[in-house]
Amino acid sequence: MTDYPTGLGTSDRDTISLLGHDLAGELLGTVTFGELAFWLATQQRPTPQQLRVFEAVLVSLADHGFTPTAIAARLTYYSAPDSLQGAIAAGLLGGGSRFLGVTEDTGKFLHTALAGLGDTTAFTDDDWDAAALTLLTETKQLGRRVPGLGHPVHKVRDPRTVVIIRIAEEEGVRGPHLRLFEAIGRTNALVLGKELPLNGAGVAGAALADLGLPIDLLRGFALLARTAGLIGHLAEERVNPIAPAIYAEVDRNAVYVPSAAASAE
C-alpha cells in the first residue's frame, strides 16, 4: 500500500489530528483562526508578536467597499443564488494585479530587491533611501511600475499604511521588506516627479514577508482575508440587493457600436 505523507491533518474513527495535535482536545477553543492559518502555511506556530501583525494585515485586507471583486460576487449571487460558493469564487477569481494581487506582487518585488543588497542588518535610513532610489531608477528605466506604490482612491495617504508599520514596530518584526518599502515611499518623488503614497495592500505584503511567510503564498493570505469580506457582501446582498440595479443599468443602457472590423466590410 502506498503512503501519502502529510504534516497537516489526519483522522481515524475517533480522533482528528491537525499539525500533530488533537483537534478536539488541544486546539478547539485555544487557537484562533488567524493563528491556525499562519501555522498551517508555515508548519510553525506563530509567536504572539507575529500573530498580532498577521491578524492586523488580515483585517486590513478584508474589505474595501464596492471593488470589482465584491461586485462580481454580488452579480454572481444574483444570477445563481443557489450557489453561494460560486459567488465567493467569482469574487476571489478577480484578485489580480490591480486588486488584491498587489500584496503578493509587492512582497515578491521587495524580496527580489533585497536579495541583491546583501546584509542589511546595519542599514540606516540613509542606506535604505539610497537603495530605494537605485531600485526606483532601475525600475523606471525598464519601463515597469513599482507594485504597491499609489492607490486609485487614497491619492495622498492610505490610512492602513502607518498603522501596519506601527504595529510591526511595536511587535519587533519591522524587518527589511517594510524598511525598503518605507524608503520607496520617502524617495519616489525624486525619481517619478510626483509623490505617490504606499498602498496599504503593498504594505501588507511587505509586513507578511517580514514575518517569514512564503512569498509565493502571499496572495493566498489576501484572498483568505477577502473571503470574509465577500461573505459580508453576500449577506448584505440577501437583504439589501444592489446587483439587480447594476444589471438593469448596464443592460438598459447598452448601445450597439459596430466594431472596426465590421465597419470595414
TrEMBL record:
Which domain of life does the protein's organism represent? Bacteria
Pathway field of the UniProt record reads:
Carbohydrate metabolism; tricarboxylic acid cycle
Keyword flag Cell inner membrane: no
Q: Mention any Pfam family matching this sequence.
A: Citrate_synt
Q: Which UniProt keywords apply?
A: Lyase, Transferase
- What Enzyme Commission number does this protein have? 2.3.3.16
GO cellular component term of the entry, any: cytosol
- Tell whether Protease is among the UniProt keywords: no
Fetch the CDD domains from UniProt. Answer: CCL_ACL-C
MF terms (GO), sorted A to Z: citrate synthase activity; lyase activity
GO BP: carbohydrate metabolic process; tricarboxylic acid cycle
Q: Which family does it belong to?
A: Belongs to the citrate synthase family.
Protein name (record): citrate synthase (unknown stereospecificity)
What organism does this protein naturally occur in?
Cryobacterium arcticum
